[in-house]
């Protein structure tokens, strides 16, 4: 009796995994719509994270917080179920970030000081292929690298802003609100340095130094992505190299003969 009852349960679990795997990993129109919907939900959650310092004193804040926790938790569980190897999946940086985000959502009062790291969700969103498939099929495909670099820069701005707001915002400090923290971050990252807002103490100076170094690095990366020669995305069947010159005949890494389609194909 036990064995007979266990088999249907196991088959239901396998069917659930197959359905989730198809939704998360296939390119079927239904799956693409699901992936686009999940990306749109991620955008709404990110907007909530960015606006959190401005609405954290409202009654609806905790409801929105726990709703975001439910969505992030279910998404993580589904992705874990469809992972071919759970140990390898757990080593992905995007998974670490989502787990950290979930932790700050489930217990916001205990992990308030880490709340600014929630904005790293922008970076995990940028690693979803559903965002880049339409770009690669359009006339904007040459700007994918620039868009990725811009996303990294924006993520950095909001993470540093959140840290400055969490660590230094207090009456009389010059950083009395989220907008002040964002203003300081942008002025420091761009090395404008108006000097009307400065962070106090050794910790403030070190924060400013790190902000300037990281900001300059990301601006340089963005400039390289904008001005370097355009390369097409075409996976080499032999060595899996994905970037090639538009008129390449052979893979520059392994010499394999390529068949890169023309723009009109």
Automatic annotation (TrEMBL):
One of its GO terms (cellular component) is voltage-gated potassium channel complex. Residues 154-226 form the Potassium channel domain. The chain crosses the membrane at residues 36-55, 61-82, 94-117, 149-169, 209-227. The keyword Ion transport applies. Keywords: Ion channel, Ion transport, Membrane, Transmembrane, Transmembrane helix, Transport. GO terms for biological process: action potential. Signal peptide: none annotated. It comes from the Bacteria. PANTHER family: POTASSIUM VOLTAGE-GATED CHANNEL PROTEIN SHAB (PTHR11537:SF254), VOLTAGE-GATED POTASSIUM CHANNEL (PTHR11537). This is Voltage-gated potassium channel. The lineage of its organism: Bacteria, Pseudomonadati, Pseudomonadota, Alphaproteobacteria, Hyphomicrobiales.
